[in-house]
Amino acid sequence: MGKRRLSLFINHKLQQSKLTTLMVTCFIAFNLLLVSGIVWLAYQSFSTVTFTEISKARLALLNESTRRGFDFITGVTGTAYSLASNRELSSLLETAGTGRLTQIHQRRELAKILDHTLVVSEGITSVELYTDAFNGVTVTMADRIFPVDTIAGDSWFTALEHADAAWVPLRENESGHSLVGYAQRIFDSRGSTAAYV
Description:
The chain has helices at 2-84, 87-92, 100-120, 149-152, 157-161; strands at residues 129-130, 145-146, 165-169, 180-187, 193-196. It is mostly helical.
């Protein structure tokens, strides 16, 4: 009977030990499941907030870039239009019946107007004038005034002959980047083309 009691006692302890192990295992599994659920919810919330904020930031950056692009386009076209409608510039292009000395003076005054425009215009890297008004004058110093033949061979020039203004592709710069320019026709007092800026 002592052996039986010992056997029952051992069985009882084993069962109690198995029950304790099962309870501890269930407790750990439940806690792991609970912590996993909390971590997953936190990750989802963080991901949603982060994605929303990144999307807002990208949209704001895109809007700012678009606004700057439109401002630049408006600035360039406005600068070209102000040069084309400048009465002083138009009168300086009237060289018919003037002597060479007067034409040299007119050319210098035109160069000053172009230089001033370049200084006060933000984002514009070059302002050039193409006209045949000064073909008879020898150029003594480098300036921004060229004969029309300089651009007559460019592919975009024929399109400009049919329009008052156009965005045109330019040659590559020193660093190999392609540039874009805006060309505007300048009319004289008779309505003929006096120059291109």
